[in-house]
Design brief:
This protein has 197 residues and is mainly alpha-helical. The protein has eight helices and six strands. Strands 1-2 form a two-stranded parallel ribbon. A two-stranded antiparallel ribbon has the order 3-6. α6 packs antiparallel against α7.
Amino acid sequence: PVGSDPLSKGSFYPPTVLGDVPESATIAQEEIFGPIMCIFKVKGNSDDEAVRMANNCDFALSSCAFSGNFSRAKKLANRLNAGMSSVNDLEGTTYMNQSLPFGGCKKSGFDRFAGPEGLRGLCMIRSVCEDRFPAIKNSIPPPLQYPSKGSGPTFAQGLMLMFYSPSLAMKAQGLIKLLSAVMASPAKVEDEAIKEK
């Protein structure tokens, strides 16, 4: 709008289409909250290249994929790294639906509002651990208690082997280490430590 047109005054920005925009252009790498559409050329009309170009940006609030083939559009939308995606529709359909969570990823943020996920953001979520069987009480195992008797490292190694080893043989080795650490006397542990030095 120019001249006497009322829209030429103030902060009005007319709808604009930019063609042949380079992928490295500032307007292609920043969020534009305005009526601007950038058109990019995709080499070889390749879906993979189109997805790569769309994901090559630090901002990822919303996205949409259009195609005459619904299945193709859906596959494209599923591959876009954005908080929201629409298939053959404007990306606004995602946030106009108030039962869906609204939010992005990357530099567009990670939190959500609206939907159950948005309500959870207003809650204080706490983690609480307790004994499943009240008669069995947790305590620090004697080999790990202070003052150290010297068998703590062996006990810890056995514990890790027993719980996290992929094979039964290594789990058995861990159990043996655990038992040896529990049954080791302080004098024996000190002798072994001297030998290792």
